[in-house]
Amino acid sequence: MRKEFLSLNKIEGPLIILSKVEDVAYGEIIDITVDGKHHRKGKVVKIDNDKIVAQIFEGTTGLSTHNTSIRFTGTPLEIPLSKDILGRTFNGVGNPIDSDFPIYSNKRYNINGRPINPVSRQYPRDYINTGISAIDSLMTLIRGQKLPIFSGNGLPHNELAVQIVKQAKISGAEDGNFAIVFGAMGVRHDDADYFIRSFKESGVLERVVMYLNLADDPIIERISTPRCALTAAEYLAFECGMHILVILTDMTSYCEALRELSAAREEVPSRKGYPGYMYSDLATIYERAGMLKGTEGSITLLPILTMPNDDITHPIPDLTGYITEGQIVLSRELYQSNIYPPISVLPSLSRLMKDGIGEDYTREDHGDLANQIFSSYSRVQDIRSLAQIIGEEDLSEIDKKYMEFGKRFEDEFLSQSMDENRPIEDTLNLGWKLLSLLPKEELDRINPKLIEKFYMK
């Protein structure tokens, strides 16, 4: 028999503390009644012998230690799921916010998910075509991969996320078998409106499931948002056999909420005040992406995070890089040069790219072409540094050709409009066009047979 507690021991910010509690589980949901009529929900976030600490989803405003009753539900946070979630918008705990029409389902799913047995994982292969040249050719997104975007405050990561949602498609997959789960954490109201408006105008909203946590929403809801999104993705992928692309923005807001919650619980801080368990906490999110043997569907994860002070060594991008399979880095310098998307090619990579490109997937020359572009653009950076010292007039003729290649690469290859969807064939042909600015003998990363076939004289 479940007990109802008629008073609290203490209220500290968004937390309540209750003692003399038995048979309570970590993460259990509690029902809170205020003044006998107002209802809220909370979640157990700490257990210390017979004392528990719970975080209130709606905040503790209006609560006192004597006007509040608590009832433990005995279950974790669960959300109902069916294919009716496609085209719908929910808050961070899975409640619909686009209308009063709820999701009816016989099953409810624990948002914490279940660990995937590594032996059951299937190796990612097929590529996802985003229509963005820099990503498709140089850091190809592979179905089942987790590939984060490292951005900075003020950079167009929201616009990039919207463009990927509008354009992304899996090679060979049917349109009705591909959907996108979009989770936004700590976003401003105007950003949330921008996402919804953009998806409606482009006509992709019916295949997008949105979980929105706004900047003024409770932080415990922010902790739950990516887990609700991934739970919906797991249902659509592994029970409905769909291919799901999950986009989470902004993981920095998630980690800030994790730090705030940790400080409220008086835990010992680690680097820059973040909890010592942040690595394992992020892993419980990122590792839910992938493919399972014997199942048709897949989950591809594209988390977006803003690096504080553009510092790629900050704990959030640093720990993310250890868990994920590469990164796409946005450059403030390119953005200030009016280049969109401002993807910094050299620090970006996709560790699974080599297994999802080539003759059977994109085109036979893709791998060698990408290697040569990386090599040539790297040399461009060295020559630009030299030109700042001796001046461009004193550069050798071959160095001047590299300078021209670098400028046209940024202006023609990296740069494209927000509604431009480039096919992979056009992207690869454009790469050859730019490499043809250089003499054949400089293309030392490409098979000579491919040079004879694709080099544009």
UniProtKB/TrEMBL annotation:
Top-level division of the source organism's lineage: Bacteria
CDD domains, alphabetized: ATP-synt_V_A-type_beta_C, ATP-synt_V_A-type_beta_N, V_A-ATPase_B
Keywords: ATP synthesis, Hydrogen ion transport, Ion transport, Transport
Stated role: Produces ATP from ADP in the presence of a proton gradient across the membrane. The V-type beta chain is a regulatory subunit.
PANTHER family referenced in this protein's UniProt entry, alphabetically: V-TYPE PROTON ATPASE SUBUNIT B (PTHR43389)
Family: Belongs to the ATPase alpha/beta chains family.
HAMAP family: ATP_synth_B_arch (MF_00310)
UniProt name for this protein: V-type ATP synthase beta chain
Lineage start: Bacteria, Bacillati, Bacillota, Clostridia, Lachnospirales
Gene name of the encoded protein: atpB
